[in-house]
Recover the amino acids of this structure.
């Protein structure tokens, strides 16, 4: 499977949207924080809120990129050729997800770099909360990517998968807002906090607004558990289907 993963990552990095997406991740994060300080007059610590806000661009980007990337593999016959070459479809699936997860991690590092650069250039301090929240954001993005990969691998038409992924992004956003708001309206507890965190963008809202009803470690573990769950769901009985 290592060969499949390596080939997928190389193909991904050559995609027309991928490198520009990484550059935008750095630029938007840095400029967003700069605007918050220069225009709104906030301090560097408050500007880190805007860094977390910029992190929403990661799932937004991969809502479109994953269907285009995976759909391109179907359209070009690459996935069918891999199966003909003797690779199990489950292995093909895992190779696709690992490549996508690597792409998510790269964009996350670019986002983090934008935030770190701004804080250091402007004489701010990098706190433990800065990094723990960053790791939690990586977790919720991997969780989100596992869902979109499952959709893209099951829906072979690139256009349909892209439309459904964008609709899912909007649904996930409003579901996250709703659950987070309900959690804030009621007395927050571990149960309502966990419900909030079973939505990938619910996690993002909690991180962005410093919701402490669920410890950061628990939030990260939930994200990893949901990533594994949706990867298993997407891979379920995939070897039984026909590739045409």
């Amino acid at each position: 499977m290592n060969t499949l993963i390596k080939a997928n990552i190389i193909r991904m990095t050559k995609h027309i949207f991928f490198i520009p997406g990484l550059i935008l991740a750095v630029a938007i994060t840095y400029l967003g924080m700069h605007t918050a300080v220069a225009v709104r007059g906030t301090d560097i610590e408050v500007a880190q809120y805007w860094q977390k806000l910029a992190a929403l661009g990661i799932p937004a980007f991969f809502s479109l990129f994953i269907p285009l990337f995976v759909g391109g593999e179907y359209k070009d016959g690459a996935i069918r050729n891999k199966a003909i070459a003797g690779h199990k479809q489950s292995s093909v699936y895992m190779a696709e997800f690992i490549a996508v997860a690597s792409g998510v991690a790269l964009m996350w590092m670019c986002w983090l770099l934008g935030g770190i650069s701004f804080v250091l250039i402007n004489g701010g301090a990098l706190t433990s909360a800065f990094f723990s929240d960053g790791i939690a954001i990586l977790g919720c993005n991997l969780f989100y990517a596992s869902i979109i990969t499952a959709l893209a691998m099951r829906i072979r038409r690139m256009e349909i998968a892209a439309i459904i992924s964008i609709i899912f992004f909007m649904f996930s956003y409003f579901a996250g807002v709703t659950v987070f708001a309900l959690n804030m309206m009621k007395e927050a507890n571990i149960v309502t906090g966990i419900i909030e965190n079973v939505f990938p963008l619910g996690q993002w809202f909690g991180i962005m607004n410093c919701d402490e009803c669920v410890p950061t470690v628990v939030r990260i573990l939930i994200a990893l558990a949901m990533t594994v769950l949706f990867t298993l769901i997407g891979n379920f009985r995939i070897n039984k289907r026909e590739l045409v």
Q: What stands out?
A: The chain has a mean pLDDT of 86. Residues 89-121 form the longest helix (33 residues). The radius of gyration is 19 Å.
